[in-house]
Amino acid sequence: MTEIFGVPIQALYGQLMLGLVNGSFYAVLSLGLAVIFGMLNIINFAHGAMYMTGAMLTWVGLEYLGIGYWWMLVLAPIAVGLIGIAIERLMLQWLYKLDHLYGLLLTFGLALMIEGLFRDLYGVAGQPYSIPEMLSGAFNLGFMFLPKYRAWIIVASLAVCFVTWFMIEKTRLGAYLRAATENPQLTQAFGINVPLMVMLTYGFGVGLAAFAGVLAAPATQISPLMGSNLIIVVFAVVVVGGMGSILGSIVTGLGLGVIEGLTKVFYPEASSTVVFVIMAIVLLVRPAGLFGKEK
Amino acid sequence: MTTGEFLRVSDLHAFYGESHVLHGMDFTVRRGECISLLGRNGAGRTTTLRAILGLTGRRTGSIMLNGREAIRLPPHRIAQMGVGYCPEERGIYASLSCEENLLLPPRVGSGGLSLEAIYDMFPNLAERRKSQGSRLSGGEQQMLAMARILRTGARLLLLDEVSEGLAPVIVQKLGEVIRMLKERDYTIILVEQNFRFAAPLADRMFIVEHGQVVAEIAREEIDEKQHLLQEYLGV
């Protein structure tokens, strides 16, 4: 069997693909964080909880209501987006003029409450969710087997990232969004309803997190803790990519996922810390992140 | 030209946090008229424009815009009543290209200039249409800030220190544009430091001091009220 640096090439491909899958989640989640931070100036610590809520709703939908995966892929992000809009209107909107710390504390508290709620309802034991029939099985690529569901995660995540990037960078609505991110007061003085855009942005950002949660449901154990396990790495991704940078969060998310996967192959002991080591190095060299702008 | 009032500001007070900046501004602008707010730095002229748009903190008093009370409306609703704002700091978006900046403000009325007409008026902007907002020169930024609100169909233009810090040839160009806008029956408020720029353009001038209007000078009164200009502005 072929080997590279003493590692079987099959194992390398396998981890590379897992890295891409994890990277896809990082990308979608950090993208949502970036959009929210840009527009609301709030570090959304509830992001992991929204991701978890997306996955939980997927499971609840099938278990109690008989709603299948494909429907939940649409319904869960909408439901979580609406929850986000309610949170923005009732709580976050009072914090924009205050220090980042207040938004961070509030969203952190919300995350604990949402997690606590699901723990209370369903316990911490992971719930299984089976892969939809259409996506079970694997592609034989010749050099490796690629499980269809993992391929779907990567494709769906990249598609969502691309659509989001396109909307923000290439459309008129995106120009409003970029303008409102840069100078909200003036943008509103031109007749654009900035408070409405801020509200929708938060709904959209947490909707993205929920979308990632639905994607994750058949691939992991669905548990109230799945968000907090992931969110710390996602924050490291955001810091490496540069706070508020759209493209930065997508590219860094995928890149760090792959690096993490490769580390599992070559030096497994470091696989859970490599992202943070990279974060430390990036902060030393470029404090604003790889794609961030110095202020 | 019609003589109806387009804007009536009465007893306007405005605050930034705790600090009370406007102390009862009173003035009117007729449809198609160009007025100028003159005064020293910190007299409250910029704040007056910002207060009309709802960009200050708390406001009291009355702002009748085209017959409708605007004091309690949020900025985007006021803008949608046909107000265009060209801020002192120009407010060009660095993350948008020149043309994106130009196309950004949504239409707030009918009869705005077309993109071609604007590029005819400001050929420099046509050349720089793909450039990032942050790469434009000061003069180009000022022209862009003006041009941006001509596309929207706004009928009341709030122009804050458009001549400030620019080369004479560009100041002259902006003067021509404002003259052309007057001919087209736009209603204009010029906030100016530069008396020599404002005097030939303004139909009436209001001198602002400590957040109040302290004198009103119609164009034909400039000579007889020279002492006021001397006293308040040192010109």
Please give a quick description of this structure:
With 295 residues, chain A is mainly α. Chain A is 71% helix and 3% strand.
Overall description:
The complex is a heterodimer of chains A (295) and B (235). Chain A has 295 residues and is mainly alpha-helical. Chain A has a domain at 25-226. Chain A has helices at 9-40, 47-65, 69-90, 100-122, 148-170, 172-182, 184-189, 194-216, 226-241, 246-266, 274-285, and strands spanning 3-4, 7-8, 138-140, 145-147. In chain A, a hairpin with a 2-residue loop joins strand 1 and strand 2. The longest helix of chain A has 32 residues, at 9-40. Chain A is globular. Chain B has 235 residues and is an alpha/beta fold. Chain B folds into 2 domains: 1-82 and 155-164 and 171-235, 3-Layer(aba) Sandwich (Rossmann fold), CATH 3.40.50.300; 91-154, no CATH class. Chain B is built from 9 helices and 10 strands. Chain B has helices at residues 45-52, 75-80, 98-103, 115-121, 123-127, 138-150, 168-183, 195-198, 226-233; strands spanning 5-16, 19-30, 34-39, 59-65, 68-69, 83-86, 156-160, 187-192, 204-209, 212-218. In chain B, the strands form 2 sheets. A 6-stranded mixed β-sheet of chain B has the order 6-7-8-3-9-10, with helices on both faces. Chain B has a 4-stranded antiparallel β-sheet with strand order 2-1-4-5, covered by helices on one side. In chain B, a hairpin with a 2-residue loop joins strand 4 and strand 5 (68-69). The radius of gyration of chain B is 17 Å and the shape is globular. Chains A and B meet through helix 6 and helix 7 of A and helix 2 of B.
